[in-house]
Write a structure and sequence with these properties.
It contains 33 helices and 16 strands. With about 800 residues, it is α/β, with parallel strands linked by helices. The strands form four sheets. It has a six-stranded mixed beta sheet with strand order 7-6-8-12-15-16, sandwiched between helices. Strands 3-2-1-4-5 form a five-stranded mixed beta sheet. A three-stranded antiparallel beta sheet has the order 9-10-11. Helix 6 (about 110-130) runs parallel beside helix 8 (about 155-165). Residues about 1-30 have low confidence and may be disordered.
C-alpha cells in the first residue's frame, strides 16, 4: 500500500457542495513523457480556470496511462477529467469520467483512488439533489478511507453530513460536520474549513438552531476575512443573510444578500444565491426586485438542466430541487401582472411554469436514436435482480433489502446515463403559450394549476389567449380534496355538497369564456392528482340527492382529460384497428388449481380476480376480436407479458392487481402470475420506462392504479408517468379500488365508443361510459365506481 500512496501524491480533487476547491491531482510518477506533457497542460488550464479546455488533456492522459499499463495514473487522470467537468457544473460529462476511475480503482485494488472517486461521486450527487445516492457514495468511501487512513476522510465526513442534514437527519450530521471541521483546521486548511463551517451554519439555520448557526457562521466569516478566502465568501454571506432574516434583522439581511450576489460564487450555484434573495424580496413585497432575481435564478437553473446526468432519476431529483426558481418567478410575475394588467407577464409566467414543469418526463419520451436502444444486456440483468428485491421487500420489508434495492437502482441509472450520453438535451424552442394555442381546438380550454404552500395559481388558456386566477394554498386544497374524496368513496350523501363547494373553490372566479368550453384539459398539481374531477357538482342549485338524473356532475357537462403538460400536447392521431393486448386473471396463489409450479414457495400471495378474464375477453370483442391477444392464467406471467409488449400493440389493457412498490415514490407495481418457482411477476416504472412503445392507449383497470407520490415540478410519479414516458399517447387509470364486475361494465362501454368514434379520443369514450353507468345505476353508490376513472393523455 505504501507504494500506491507514494505513486499517487498528495493533492485532492473536487469534492462537495459548497465544500472544497477543485484541484486536479498531480501525478507524481507519470507513466511516460507523453503522459507528463498531457497532464501538465491539463493542470495549467485547470489552474487558470479553463475547465472545458483542461478536460480533454486529462482524458488523453487517462487513455495514455491505460495504454501504458499504469492503472493508478489512469484512475487519477479520469478523476481529474471528471473534476474539470464538475468545476463547471457539467454533470453529464463528470459522471462517466468518475465511473471509469471507479472501475479502474476497483479492478486494480487501488484504495486511495477509489476513496477519492467516491468522494467526487458524493459531491456530484449532492449537487444534483440525489441525496440518497450521495449518502451511499460517501458511506462507501468512508469504509475505505477509515481502514486505509487516507486524506479523504474529512471530505467524506463532510459530504455525508451535508446529505444527512438535507435529509432532515441533523442530529446525525452534526458530529460528522464537527469532526470534519476539526480535521481540516488541524491541517491549517483554512479555505476548506471555512467552506464546511458555511455549509454547517446554513444547515443550522434550516434546522432552526439559530444561536448555533450564528456562532458557526461568525467563525467562518472571520476565517474568510483573515485569510482572504474570496471563493468561500458567497455561501457564508448567503447563510448569514438567511439567519438575520430569521432573527428579524431585515436591514442586515438585505445587505448580506447583496454582498453574497456581488462576491465570487466559488462553487455555490449562482441560481441559489439569486433564488434566496428573490425569496427575501418577495416576502417584503418587492415584486419587481424579486422578479429580476428569479429571472436570473431560472437562467442559471436552465443551464444546469442542460448539463445534468441524462438519467431519469437524476432529472427528477434536479427538477424538484430547482422548483424554487420557477415558483418564485411565477409568484412575483403573477402578482405584478394582476397589479399592472401587463399581459406579457402572464405569458412569461405561464411559459416558465410549462417549460420547467415535467422537464424530466419530456426528456424521457422516445426520440430518434433513442437511448433505450443502446441499453446493454447487463441493464436487463440488473433490472431482473431489482425486481426480485422488490418482491422480497414486499414479503419481508427490511432496511438491508431496501439499501440493496437503492444501490441496484443507482447502478441502473448510471447505465442509463451512459446509454443516453450521446443524446442531446431537449431544448424547447416554441413558447408554451404558442404551442397550446396551436394545438387546442376551438371547443377546448387548458386549465393549468400551480399549487404552493402560500397559495396557488390557475392559468386558463384557449386559442385566443391566457388569464390567471388565484388558487387555494396547498393545505386548503389538501383538506378539501381529502374530505370530498372520502365522501365519494364511502358513498356519503354529503359528497354532493362537498362537490359543489370544491367546484366553486377551484373555478368560482374563472371567466365563463373559459368555463363554457366543452373540452377541459386539466393540468394538475399537488393534491389535485387525488381529486375525482368527474364527480364535482357544477350547479349548486341542483345538488339534491333525490334528483339523480339531473346533469349535476361535471363529467356530464364537460369532456375531462388530465394532461401531463402543455408542451407535451399533440394533435390527435386516432388508432382504429390496432392490436389489442389484454392481461387478466393472473395466478396469484400456489393454491390456484391452474398453477403448475412449486407449491411450497409463496412469499407474496394475492386474492384471485376471477372476473377479469371475462373483462379482457369482453373488451377485446368490443374493440376488435380479430386483432386481439389475451394473456390469462399461466400466460399472464412476466416473461410472456414482456414478449407481448415488444410486439408494440396499439391497446394494452391490464385487469390485474396493482400493489404499492416498496421503493420508487410509492408507485404502483402491476402484479402478474407466479412463475414455476413460485415467484410473482411485477412490472413497475423502472421497467416500463426502459421500453420504447407507441400504444394509443394503456388501460390500468387495477386497484388504485394511479398511485404515486406527487413531486414538485416532476408531477405524479408512478405507472401513468412511466407509460407516457415509454411512448403511450393516453393512459386510463383508477384513483381507488373498484369492484371487478362494475369495472367490466364501464370498460366495455368505453371500448365500444372508442372504436366507433376514435377521432373524439379516449376522454370522450370515458365520458360516455361513465354516463351509461350512471343511468343504469340511478341509486346506490354508483359514484364510487365511475368517479374512480380518469384519462391522462397527450392528445
Amino acid at each position: 500500500m505504501s507504494i500506491v500512496v507514494a505513486t499517487l501524491g498528495s493533492a485532492l480533487v473536487a469534492s462537495s457542495l459548497c465544500g472544497s476547491t477543485w484541484r486536479a491531482v498531480k501525478n507524481v510518477k507519470p507513466a511516460s513523457a507523453a503522459q507528463i506533457a498531457l497532464s501538465k497542460e491539463g493542470h495549467r488550464l485547470f489552474d487558470s480556470g479553463e475547465y472545458s479546455r483542461a478536460r480533454p488533456f486529462f482524458r488523453l492522459a487517462a487513455l495514455r496511462a491505460e495504454s501504458d499499463g499504469t492503472p493508478s495514473q489512469a484512475a487519477l487522470s479520469w478523476i481529474n477529467a471528471g473534476a474539470a467537468a464538475l468545476a463547471r457544473l457539467d454533470y453529464r460529462d463528470a459522471l462517466p469520467d468518475f465511473l471509469k476511475a471507479k472501475r479502474i480503482a476497483e479492478t486494480s485494488g487501488l484504495s486511495r483512488p477509489l476513496a477519492m472517486t467516491m468522494s467526487n461521486l458524493a459531491s456530484l450527487y449532492l449537487q444534483m439533489g440525489d441525496l440518497e445516492a450521495a449518502v451511499r457514495a460517501a458511506k462507501d468511501g468512508l469504509s475505505i478511507a477509515a481502514v486505509e487512513r487516507t486524506g479523504e476522510l474529512p471530505w467524506l465526513r463532510f459530504q455525508m453530513a451535508t446529505a444527512l442534514a438535507q435529509l432532515h437527519h441533523f442530529d446525525e450530521a452534526e458530529p460528522l460536520y464537527r469532526q470534519a471541521i476539526d480535521d481540516m483546521a488541524e491541517g491549517n486548511n483554512f479555505e476548506t474549513t471555512a467552506r464546511i463551517l458555511g455549509n454547517f451554519g446554513n444547515d443550522c439555520v434550516r434546522a432552526g438552531r439559530l444561536d448555533e448557526a450564528e456562532d458557526v457562521l461568525s467563525e467562518a466569516l472571520l476565517l474568510v476575512r483573515l485569510h482572504h478566502l474570496d471563493d468561500a465568501a458567497a455561501n457564508i454571506l448567503r447563510s448569514l443573510a438567511k439567519l438575520k432574516d430569521r432573527q428579524g434583522d431585515q436591514r442586515s439581511a438585505r445587505a448580506l444578500f447583496d454582498a453574497a450576489i456581488q462576491a465570487s460564487p466559488g462553487i455555490t450555484p449562482r441560481w441559489l444565491l439569486y433564488a434566496d434573495r428573490g425569496d427575501f424580496r418577495l416576502n417584503r413585497n418587492d415584486l419587481r426586485g424579486a422578479l429580476a432575481d428569479f429571472r436570473e435564478a431560472r437562467r442559471f437553473a436552465s443551464q444546469m438542466r442542460r448539463d445534468t446526468v441524462p438519467a431519469d432519476l437524476s432529472r427528477v431529483n434536479l427538477e424538484s430541487g430547482l422548483t424554487r426558481a420557477s415558483a418564485g418567478l411565477i409568484a412575483a410575475g403573477n402578482r405584478l401582472a394582476r397589479q399592472t394588467s401587463d399581459a406579457s407577464l402572464l405569458r412569461e409566467t405561464f411559459d416558465a411554469a410549462e417549460q420547467d414543469r415535467l422537464w424530466s418526463l419530456r426528456s424521457l419520451l422516445p426520440a430518434p436514436n433513442d437511448w433505450r436502444t443502446r441499453l446493454p444486456k447487463k441493464y436487463w440483468d440488473l433490472l431482473a435482480q431489482y425486481q426480485a428485491l422488490e418482491r422480497d421487500l414486499l414479503a419481508h420489508p427490511s432496511a438491508d433489502l431496501a439499501e440493496q434495492a437503492s444501490a441496484l437502482r443507482e447502478e441502473m441509472q448510471q447505465i442509463q446515463a451512459t446509454a443516453a450520453s450521446r443524446s442531446g438535451s431537449r431544448i424547447e424552442s416554441e413558447s408554451a403559450l404558442a404551442h397550446a394555442n396551436r394545438v387546442l381546438s376551438a371547443d377546448s380550454v387548458l386549465l393549468s394549476f400551480y399549487v404552493t404552500q402560500s397559495g396557488g395559481w390557475l392559468w386558463a388558456v384557449d386559442q385566443q389567449g391566457v388569464d390567471v386566477y388565484p388558487a387555494p394554498s396547498l393545505e386548503t386544497l389538501k383538506n378539501a380534496v381529502a374530505d370530498f374524496r372520502r365522501a365519494v368513496t364511502t358513498g356519503n350523501p354529503n359528497s354532493l355538497e362537498l362537490g359543489c363547494a370544491l367546484y366553486q373553490l377551484l373555478f368560482g372566479n374563472v371567466s365563463t369564456r373559459y368555463l363554457s368550453r366543452k373540452r377541459w384539459l386539466l393540468e394538475l398539481d399537488g393534491p389535485l392528482f387525488d381529486l375525482p374531477f368527474a364527480a364535482l357538482v357544477v350547479d349548486p342549485g341542483k345538488a339534491d340527492p333525490k334528483k339523480q338524473n339531473e346533469p349535476n356532475y361535471l363529467f356530464q357537462r364537460k369532456i375531462l382529460q388530465a394532461i401531463p403538460g402543455a408542451l407535451m400536447l399533440e394533435h390527435p392521431s386516432p388508432s382504429r384497428n390496432g392490436i389489442f393486448l389484454g392481461i387478466g386473471d393472473p395466478i396469484y396463489s400456489p393454491a390456484d388449481s391452474r398453477y403448475q409450479g412449486d407449491r411450497t414457495k409463496h412469499e407474496v400471495v394475492l386474492p384471485r380476480l376471477p372476473a377479469t378474464e371475462a373483462e379482457v375477453e369482453a373488451c377485446s370483442r368490443a374493440w376488435n376480436p380479430a386483432r386481439a391477444r389475451l394473456l390469462t392464467g399461466p400466460d399472464a406471467r412476466l416473461t410472456t407479458v414482456q414478449e407481448a409488449l415488444r410486439s408494440n400493440p396499439s391497446i394494452i389493457h391490464f385487469a390485474t392487481h396493482v400493489v404499492t412498490a416498496p421503493e420508487d415514490h410509492s408507485s404502483g407495481l402491476i402484479a402478474l402470475s407466479l412463475d414455476r418457482k413460485g415467484a410473482m411477476g411485477f412490472i413497475g416504472p423502472a421497467e416500463i420506462a426502459a421500453y420504447t412503445l407507441t400504444p394509443s392507449l394503456v388501460v390500468l383497470n387495477g386497484c388504485h392504479s394511479a398511485q404515486g407520490e406527487a413531486l414538485p415540478s416532476a408531477g405524479l410519479m408512478g405507472l401513468t408517468r412511466a407509460w407516457l414516458g415509454a411512448g403511450a399517447r393516453s393512459v386510463l387509470a383508477t384513483r381507488w379500488d373498484i369492484p371487478d364486475d362494475a369495472g367490466e361494465d364501464i370498460m366495455v362501454d368505453f371500448y365500444r365508443t372508442f372504436r366507433a368514434q376514435p377521432d373524439r379520443g379516449p376522454a370522450f369514450a370515458l365520458q360516455q361510459a361513465q354516463g351509461a353507468f350512471l343511468r343504469s345505476h340511478p341509486g346506490g353508490n354508483a359514484t364510487q365506481v365511475w368517479g374512480a376513472y380518469f384519462v391522462l393523455g397527450r392528445e
